[in-house]
Amino acid sequence: PCTECSCSSGKEPTKDPSHTKKKENGDGLFVPKIFFGTRTHKQIAQISRELKRTAYSAVPMTILSSRDYTCIHPVVSHSASNRNEMCVELLEGKHGKSCAYYHGAHKVSEHHALQSAHGVYQAWDIEDLVSLGRKLRACAYFAARELMVGADIVFCPYNYLLDPQIRESMDINLKGQVVILDEAHNIEDCARESVSYGVTEGQLRAAREELDFMVNNNIRHKDHEPLRAVCCSLI
């Protein structure tokens, strides 16, 4: 009943880390999360504004988005190259440097540090998350992922739910959860993109040259000859 829900009192709910509620007889009752998928990040901002206007504004939530929107590292965030790769290199310490913001992500892992940032418990959007991350010098990208553990509502773009590789990397398990797809007529295009790969003509020509070398030098001829034929046909 809503009278037993945290939203009815406007107070900060006590979250069970395992995300289960206990019945009176002691048995665990699984509480599903709501995964709300949208086409663009801009639509997530619109939906979070609408959530603010409801009685469920204080319900624990999070927004999953790419590093392009949430990275606050002064070098990575302003780089024109692949931010994902640069972030991974920092986390692995490949060049003897690490990311201090990543190590501070736990500072915003308490959900209501975000929701009470403006003095009231309410839904937030990506800009609020990034702003708090800068204030606390904490990584907004990984903080959002940590918040997913205790969140009742998870907002994200379509591909986070449709692409199996992204689901695995983000530790998203949809079994037994509630999935809502906004403007679902766009799902077909997104599904095609998730299993598609684009190459340029230059890349095809470079691949053909390498395969020519392999075939001409009789290096695994049986494997490389069909691949060369595919490159030639595409070119």
Automatic annotation (TrEMBL):
It comes from the Eukaryota. GO terms for molecular function: ATP binding; DNA binding; DNA helicase activity; hydrolase activity, acting on acid anhydrides, in phosphorus-containing anhydrides. Transmembrane segments: none annotated. Residues 1-11 have a biased composition (Polar residues). Residues 1-25 are annotated as: Disordered. Residues 12-25 have a biased composition (Basic and acidic residues). One of its GO terms (biological process) is double-strand break repair involved in meiotic recombination. One of its GO terms (cellular component) is nucleus. Pfam families: DEAD_2 (PF06733). Keywords: ATP-binding, Hydrolase, Nucleotide-binding. Residues 1-231 form the Helicase ATP-binding domain. InterPro entries: DinG/Rad3-like, Helic_SF1/SF2_ATP-bd_DinG/Rad3, Helicase-like_DEXD_c2, P-loop_NTPase, RAD3-like_helicase_DEAD. PANTHER family: DNA REPAIR DEAD HELICASE RAD3/XP-D SUBFAMILY MEMBER, FANCONI ANEMIA GROUP J PROTEIN. This is FANCJ protein. It comes from Sclerurus mexicanus (tawny-throated leaftosser). The lineage of its organism: Eukaryota, Metazoa, Chordata, Craniata, Vertebrata.
